[in-house]
Model the fold of this input.
Amino acid sequence: MSPSTEHPYAVRAALCLVLAGVCAALHIWKLPPALPALQEQFQLDLVESGFLLSIVQLGGMTLGLLVGLIAERIGLRRSMMTGLAILAAASAAGAHFGTAAMILLFRAIEGCGFLMVVMPAPALIRRLVPPASLSRLMSLWSCYMPIGTVLILAGGAWLLTLGDWRWLWTLLGALTFAMLLLTWALVPADPPAAAAHGGNASGQPPALRLVRLTLGSRGVWMIALIFGVYAAQWITVIGFLPTIYAAGGVAGTTAGLLTALVAGANIIGNLLAGRLLHQGLPAQRLIMAGFITMIVCAFAAFGAGLPTAAQFAAILVFSAVGGLIPATLFVLAIALAPTPQATSTTIGWMQQCSSLGQFTGPPVVAWVVNLAGGWQWTWLATGAYALAGIALVLAIGRPAQGDGQRA
Done:
């Protein structure tokens, strides 16, 4: 299919891919609303609960690059459909096993399914849509995680009033299967060459060479590490907000809604980044603005002793302006991938570094909070990640600006 000649159909298919990403994100964030019930049923302590929360990142930490490579070898659409099938099956199976160990196992499997959905999507969008629409559609794609977060944080507690956590797991499994059918119907099949055995018949580089191209690119390393330090901050603040609210006496339902509102604010920055990139604003400048704002807002929220309303406003801005970063990085990933065939492995490496940041960020901040005896020094930990991000942006230098504008 030619994007230039079938643009409306291509945009519809690209929007379907965004919905698939949102559906996958629901599985990542479905655990927090159900965690109290799981803790009670399986008598989980805090350490076990934390491991249950983080196990879904295991696949991303260890298999991101490999899954990106597999997606290129088997075909991008085929990879997404396989990932959706894995998510649907693992969620449904997890609902029917009565031990914490089996839930852990299926959460890890869900993490692998999530990767197979999100890794190929940017390359698929690039293949589907004309260059003039790419930055805006990529900014929309970058919203898949905050949209999924908002939906499940806001709706998860309500859904759990209609049934237990097993019902939620089964419902999401059915929803994901429906998303699989929609993807099959709306997204064009992979070109025959995309599934050629071994990749050689398609002209794709052999697997080892593709990995070397990806990991040998300085630009790929920079954007992957930037994604990692960004994700460490965002996931930490969003993840600990309910705990912070609880310490301040805010009720559980209200805390969930406030947390969902903060997560949803991230969508604003993602969409704004797409518009600004389309207008030619340098990518480096957008990322720098995001990190600087996150430093200032984290200090205002945690270290300045402001009233509660002002603290909440600061966290909203933290999430909203921080959203400039992931959208810009997805566009840069397409621009800086060593070859078009390396787009999925580039996204895979970004996701691997992001998962590492999400896995390590909360414990680091929790350690700082324990040392300080309160949340007042949280901004130092998140600020250190932001300063590292600024240094990495400066290390990319001028190519980031040029590539961001061309993207």
Q: What stands out?
A: Residues 179 and 269 are 26 Å apart (CA to CA).
